[in-house]
Design a protein that fits this description.
Keywords: FAD, Flavoprotein, Oxidoreductase. This protein has nine helices and nine strands. It is α+β, with helices and mostly antiparallel strands. It folds into two domains: 171 residues, Acyl-CoA dehydrogenase/oxidase, N-terminal domain (Butyryl-Coa Dehydrogenase, subunit A, domain 1), CATH 1.10.540; 153 residues, Butyryl-CoA Dehydrogenase, subunit A, domain 3, CATH 1.20.140. A four-stranded mixed β-sheet has the order 1-3-4-7. A three-stranded antiparallel β-sheet has the order 2-6-5, with no helix packed on it.
Length: 352
């Protein structure tokens, strides 16, 4: 089975009523188009409170610590719905990354909005932290010999240089002095798992953005008339749409395959790194094709601030570069293939 994809009969699905409820939570509000590069977006705190009251802010958290006890399938559905409706909010950073890490280590979790910062090792460059200045607390990890250490800091305690990504989401640079801070020990393996989950989050979001861009393109060419017939009747337009749809579908298939293997193996599969790298590589390259083709079929209207297409194309381009660039993930795929060798390459692709 390609990329280790599970057979459909072995896969669990999201409860339809929950999926409808999630979509309706975001659908009741009509979001304005997001600003351009450098125009910082603040998340909707009223919406956050509404999501919190419905148990969606900590959807995957343990029930005994105030969470809803759901899994990654439900979390992925929540992320996709947020992307479809153009909602910029730190759901993944809070629930799937920061709170998950604290719970796994047996640390207390309260109602504060959180994000995660992993300090680089010596010689490595630091990367901007999603939503750092907008969060109430930052879970800080830093290398200490063969392991990591963890502490939590209030945002007000941190030295921050604010910034944004391509769609205006906060991406802030943090400076933390951990000298004299003991912290809580964190195994390197858990930090590696945090990296996998972070990469998976962005793959899910990129795929959702690409699907929406393709859908908008199909709606546009079906309704616009040129030279007496719908744009959808022109072969050149059909080719652009079909190429975009195919790339989006490939990215989605690779991402869903990796996600389901991660869920089924509790993120412990020996081939999971390769599967996530494949998902990120496919979604990264698909973002180029879908963005180019979608804007081409929309023509001039697709370049305007008022049209919503840019919300999804710019989002896909921004997210594909976070938690590893396209080139980084391409290199990971290539390195795994070379390491497997000719005899084991098919097993690597097909999975167990």
């Amino acid at each position: 089975m390609n990329t280790g994809e599970l057979a459909p009969s072995t896969r669990s699905t999201v409860d339809p009523d929950l999926a409808t409820m999630i979509d309706n939570v975001f659908g009741y509000r009509q979001t304005a188009p997001t600003g351009g590069s450098g125009e910082r977006v603040e998340y909707d705190r009223e919406l956050w409170q509404r999501l919190d009251s419905l148990g969606l802010v900590r959807l995957t958290g343990a029930e005994e610590s105030g969470g809803s006890g759901a899994g990654w399938l439900e979390a992925a559905e929540l992320l996709r719905a947020a992307v479809r409706h153009g909602v910029r909010i730190p759901l993944a950073e809070h629930d799937l990354l920061a709170c998950w890490l604290l719970e796994t280590l047996g640390r207390p979790v309260d109602d504060a909005v959180r994000t995660v910062y992993v300090a680089p090792r010596s010689g490595e460059s630091t990367t901007p932290v999603p939503w750092a200045a907008d969060a109430e607390r930052v879970v800080v990890l830093w290398p200490a010999g063969d392991e990591y250490r963890l502490t939590e800091l209030d945002t007000a305690e941190l030295s921050l240089a604010v910034g944004t990504n391509l769609i205006g989401e906060p991406r802030d640079t943090i400076s933390v002095d951990t000298a004299g801070v003991t912290g809580h020990p964190v195994p390197t393996g858990l930090v590696d798992q945090l990296g996998r989950k972070s990469a998976m989050v962005r793959a899910i979001q990129v795929c959702a953005a690409l699907d929406r861009a393709v859908a908008l393109s199909i709606e546009h060419v079906a309704s616009r008339v040129q030279f007496g017939r719908p744009l959808a009747k022109f072969q050149a337009i059909q080719n652009l749409i079909s190429d975009a749809a195919a790339e989006s579908a490939l990215a989605r298939a690779a991402t869903e395959a990796a996600l389901h293997i991660a869920i089924e193996t509790d993120w412990q599969s020996a081939q999971l790194d390769f599967q996530i790298a494949t998902a990120r590589s496919c979604s990264g390259h698909a973002a180029s094709v879908v963005t180019r083709n979608a804007h081409q079929v929309h023509g001039a209207i697709g370049t305007t601030h008022e049209h919503r297409l840019h919300e999804y194309t710019r989002a896909a381009l921004a997210w594909r570069s976070e938690f590893g660039s396209v080139r980084f993930w391409d290199d990971q795929v290539a390195a795994a293939a070379v390491a497997a060798g000719g005899q084991q390459l098919w097993s690597l692709i097909a999975g167990p």
